[in-house]
Design goal:
Layout: E1 9-12, H1 18-29, E2 33-37, H2 51-62, E3 66-70, H3 77-91, E4 96-99, H4 114-142, E5 145-150, H5 153-158, H6 163-183, E6 188-196, H7 208-211, H8 220-226, E7 237-241, E8 244-248, E9 251-252, H9 266-276, E10 283-284, H10 292-298
Parallel strand pairs: 1-2, 1-4, 2-3, 4-5, 5-6, 6-7
Antiparallel strand pairs: 7-8, 9-10
Helix pairs in contact: 1-8, 3-4, 4-6
Nicotinamide-adenine-dinucleotide (NAD) binds near residues 16, 102 and 150.
Length: about 300
Amino acid sequence: MTIRYDNRVAIVTGAGAGLGRQHALLLASRGAKVVVNDPGGSVDGTGGANAVADTVVAEIRAAGGEAVANYGSVSDEKAAQGIIDTAMNTWGRLDILVNNAGILRDKSFSKMENEDFRVVVDVHLMGTVYCTKAAWPHMRAARYGRIVVTTSGSGTLGNFGQANYGAAKMGVNGLINVLRHEGASYNIKLNAISPSARTRMTEDLIPEEVAVYMKPELVSPAVGWMCSEQCDVSGEIISANAGSFSVVKYFQTEGVQFDPGEPVTLEMFAEAWPKINDWTGAGPMGRSRGRLEARLRAMGRIK
Ligand SMILES: NC(=O)c1ccc[n+]([C@@H]2O[C@H](COP(=O)([O-])OP(=O)(O)OC[C@H]3O[C@@H](n4cnc5c(N)ncnc54)[C@H](O)[C@@H]3O)[C@@H](O)[C@H]2O)c1
């Protein structure tokens, strides 16, 4: 099986550097026409330079691929619409959207200004919303779409000093959990990448002997697959790091079911806590506990 994107049009946001650049190069090398979006700028989202996107476009063209630059910020609603318009105006279609753009404003929560929170949420969560919303009608009309969002272990696990970033990164997971249902009948599949790689964002955080293996191009195959016709899942989170790939899921314990026809006291809860928190028999969320109706029926509360 060879995976290709011939006749497909893709957008990669924040494609001028790091992970986004590798995603764009991979998609273009397999036949996709790619909008390389990037306003340039520093890790904290300040400044800007068209050369950042232009360089990747030149790289793709030099390798025989097709690409066009867009310099808009995903956190600006109109500019985000402009990114999608760039694809539609240039090639008349949009098949793939990789929401990758990101910034950092790390600080402990006590020192973090609300503005630092807002700016990070605006790029990661609202930027993903704006681009996805603008792409949605085109994908629905074509009855085809592949959308990738970029989450992070800083959200799913938590990381000191990244309250803004962690919250924003969990937000995109909630977004695809809902949109996978709304997109299902239109063959729009949405999945998340949870990457770990050496880029300017993580430059100082990873010891050198490990960092050499944490190449951004080792994350892109998971993104490429999620962008392909072959991708047959929606709403999944794929973790990718130094050639390792795995799926992240929310699990739920079997827990306890009290009789809902009777009061539940605080003491009953406290006493049951070890059982509520017992991971024996836990399973993917929803499934381990079965349906409420079945539990109530077993107790004779409903027929
Ligand atoms: N590197 C990692 O280990 C890691 C881990 C978890 C998540 N991520 C996520 O992966 C994505 C890529 O990060 P990276 O490590 O390649 O960082 P990076 O800084 O190298 O690349 C991010 C790119 O996004 C662009 N960008 C910033 N704000 C933008 C905006 N408003 N609109 C459009 N583009 C914008 C930047 O100019 C930059 O080129 C981010 O969403 C990041 O949060 C990275």
